[in-house]
Fold:
Amino acid sequence: TQAAQALGIEVDIEKKTYGLSPKPAALLRLSPISYFYSKHSYSKRLEIIKDCVKRMFGKSTSIDVFVAYIELLVNALNGFSKEDIIQSIKLKQNSNDSLNKIFFLLINFISNDNNNIEQGLQRALKMIYIQQKECKYLNPYDSDETILLTLYLQISGALYNSIPDQWFKKIYARKTIESLTKWIIYERNQNLHSI
Structure:
């Protein structure tokens, strides 16, 4: 919104975001908060998450799953153990909320991967295959049916500090992502000076 305001564009949150409900891909869209603000205070991240969710989905949208996911990624980036990360989750399961279900499915994969990314990836792939086989048309708003796999790779890559080579080599625009990673590290370090 600051960028929009700098360009003289007025953003009306009430009109723009009314009635939108977040889909699982929204977790990925907000994940840069983890990278840029991993060394900042929880309250600073919370402030940014609240603002982003409000702007994307409106005031009435719960931020609980977003906060849980961002903190999960922040803790992984900061080197916490998998056990500590999982125990730190304060969010309660809610089977009526699709975002909540995806989050806890992700936690299940992380908890049961036996500290082996390959095993976690295989479980995620198997689930994607089963879901696609059962119903190919239930995902009209998020065309990316592999979001769970992507979320698992994001968290486990930070947790285990690597991504298996055969997966890394298949990443689209890998060189761009490598450059972006270096830039994120630089920006995060610059942000630390502004705390």
User: Anything to note?
Assistant: The mean pLDDT is 78. Residues 174-193 form the longest helix (20 residues).
